[in-house]
Each structure stands twice: as C-alpha cells, then as structure tokens.
C-alpha cells in the first residue's frame, strides 16, 4: 500500500483512538498505532509505559502483536500508522524498527503523525537499512 493519503484516511482515526487508551504516566506521550493486514482488517495498539522504562511497550509493537494474535501472517501487512501527542512527528524506536522489518511486508509504508496533514513516512528500508534477518 503506497498511497500515503489513502493510508492516512484509513488508519489515522483508529490509531488516534488507540492513543486514548495509552498508559503513559512517565512521559505523558499518548501513542497509538494501527496496522492493516492483507485482508484489510485494522489492528491497533497503544503504548504501555513502565517505571523501569526498558519494559515499556510501544504502540507499534502492540499493534503488530495484536495483528499476529488475530492471525495475520508475518510479512504481509502493507502499512502501519503511528499517532502521537506531545511530538511534532515521532520516529519509531530501534526495537520497533526491527520488529516492523520482520512483520510488515517488505514494501510496506510506515507513517508517523500528530495530525492528518503533518506527517513523515518511510519505507522499511529507510527505517532500518541492512536489518538483522535470519536466513
């Protein structure tokens, strides 16, 4: 799925809605993510922080885990959108980039935004060139 405007139209509201469920007492950053699977079903996730920080769960990984739990096959999702409050545009962390490189389609698009008109977008290769893969 490469039409950025179409992806935003389809995934923005679910990601923004998911952000309202975020547990973010430490950063106050409410992040939601939505991913669309090969069947057109949308899966969402939000960030869940932890006092130890390292155990914080990012919205992107939570959305992808929800999709896998619902039966999505790895490497088939065409798009993921991240919505975040408190940032101009939030770039995914390294852990999320690695997970996205394995679970999203190789030609997937990742969009991060805080409004429907202010966003950045990347391909998986742009987010994580030379990603770690098992052969």
Description:
With 135 residues, the chain is of the alpha+beta class. It has 4 helices and 5 strands. It has helices spanning 4-19, 59-69, 94-103, 124-127; strands spanning 31-36, 42-46, 77-84, 104-113, 119-123. The protein has a 5-stranded mixed sheet with strand order 2-1-3-4-5. The longest helix is centred in the N-terminal third of the chain and has 16 residues, at 4-19. The model has no long low-confidence stretch (mean pLDDT 93).
How is the secondary structure organized here?
Elements: H1 4-19, E1 31-36, E2 42-46, H2 59-69, E3 77-84, H3 94-103, E4 104-113, E5 119-123, H4 124-127
Parallel strand pairs: 3-4
Antiparallel strand pairs: 1-2, 1-3, 4-5
